[in-house]
Specification:
The chain has 407 residues and is mainly alpha-helical. 85% of the residues lie in helices and 0% in strands. It has 21 helices and no strands. Helix 2 packs antiparallel against helix 21, helix 9 runs antiparallel to helix 14 and helix 11 crosses helix 13. The longest helix is centred in the last third of the chain and has 36 residues.
């Protein structure tokens, strides 16, 4: 569109010079000249106005031009303050989120991310637009600061969450639904494999602790065989019989642990202590850092190619999730309530950090980046301003010329 606006201005200049030469031959050329002359004035004025927003016209340091590059720091601060005052206030976030059915919207998109293709091109354009926007946002933000904020948020949430009762309830629920039995089966299989792989250790232990008489008569070997056979038979019985006394003892121990995790203050304190030690461990910090980088890379891949994200088994699972979100009102209410609470909590806890992130990110951009991003964001409308200015100026010129002729 920039080329169209420029060519239109050139065309008006050519029309002006041609009509001026032909005006003595016929009065109609006077209207053409008036139109072209006023159109040039209007087009040049709007070209100057549009250009002055982003750069110096013709590279000349004219006062009050290149407005956006000169004021980019103030624009960043004002944008951040605008976000803080009108969007990141917990009460405002809660009120806005109350009207948004996140679960239904997510369900519709997950169930049919391509919008059916036929007759629903708007959905495809929305998907592509969201993809481009998400990619630009992820690339534009200060990744070190954003990563630090995400990591701090994760660590803070884990610190504030008492894990012991959650673990206890999860274990109790798993046992109530008998989902713990495959774990015990796997443990029994591991015991049997470990016994088979370490028979030599048992034989060596019996041989070392047997007396000289037992070793001389070879009874230590017989005793070792009996112990190994007995242990193997015990483990085999545990594998075949889910009501075996030892398995029941293991289940009793698991039930006891589930109860203690929820109600034993001493055990809960120990679990919290272990959690804090893990969070403060440098290895855990490195793991969290790597987790954020992997998540960011995955988000970028998904943003750049949303169709690839929805392909294969993962895509089928996401589409099934979308159908469930649409068909299960109770699940939808739970998810909407969780999203609202998360949004309000993020606004309350991290609003100031988000504001600083936006302000410092804009400050960190060079003038060319600011100009290019804002100019691309506004898009063709800037050039339509120039085109409209040229045409409106021309019509005004015709009207003035007509009045002059009549008078």
């Amino acid at each position: 569109m920039r080329r169209v606006a420029g060519l239109l201005l050139v065309a008006m200049a050519a029309a002006f010079f041609a009509s001026r030469a032909l005006e003595p031959r016929h009065a109609a050329w006077g209207f053409v000249r008036a139109f072209a002359e006023a159109a040039m004035v209007g087009g040049l004025a709007d070209w100057f106005a549009v250009t002055a927003l982003f750069r110096h016209p013709l590279g000349l340091p004219i006062p009050h031009t290149a407005i956006i590059p000169r004021n980019k720091d103030r624009i960043g601060d004002q944008l951040a303050q605008f976000l803080r005052e009108y969007f990141l206030i917990p009460a405002v976030v809660a009120r806005r989120m109350q009207r948004i059915d996140v679960a239904a919207a997510a369900g519709r998109w997950l169930a049919d991310p391509r919008g059916g293709r036929a007759g629903a091109g708007g959905s495809g354009r929305i998907t592509r637009g969201i993809s481009r926007l998400a990619t630009e946002v992820l690339q534009a933000l200060d990744q070190e600061r954003l990563g630090g904020m995400v990591r701090a948020m994760m660590v803070t949430r884990v610190r504030e969450t008492e894990l012991s009762p959650m673990l206890g309830r999860a274990l109790a629920a798993a046992m109530a639904e008998e989902r713990h039995r495959p774990v015990i089966d796997a443990l029994v299989r591991w015991m049997r494999a470990a016994l088979a792989a370490n028979e030599h250790l048992i034989r060596a232990m019996v041989h070392d602790r047997a007396g000289a008489v037992l070793r001389w008569t070879g009874l230590d070997e017989t005793l070792a065989n009996k112990i190994i056979d007995g242990l193997d038979k015990l483990v085999a019985e545990m594998a075949e019989n889910r009501e075996h006394p030892l398995r029941l003892k293991v289940e009793e121990a698991m039930e006891s642990i589930a109860g203690r995790l929820q109600h034993d203050p001493e055990l809960r304190a120990r679990v919290e202590s272990v959690k804090i030690e893990l969070l403060e461990n440098p290895a855990m910090q490195d793991w969290i850092n790597g987790l954020w980088e992997q998540a960011r890379a995955a988000m970028l891949r998904a943003a750049r190619d949303p169709d690839a994200l929805m392909a294969g088994k993962l895509g089928e699972a996401l589409q099934q999730l979308g159908a469930t979100l649409q068909d299960d009102p109770r699940l939808g209410r739970i998810i909407n309530r969780f999203v609202r609470r998360a949004a309000v909590g993020a606004a309350a806890d991290y609003g100031d950090a988000i504001v600083r992130l936006v302000s410092e990110t804009v400050r960190g951009w060079d003038t060319h980046t600011v100009t290019a991003r804002l100019e691309n964001a506004v898009g063709k409308d800037l050039q339509f301003i120039r085109i409209n200015g040229t045409l409106v100026g021309g019509m005004v010129g015709v009207v003035i010329h007509a009045i002059d002729v009549l008078l």
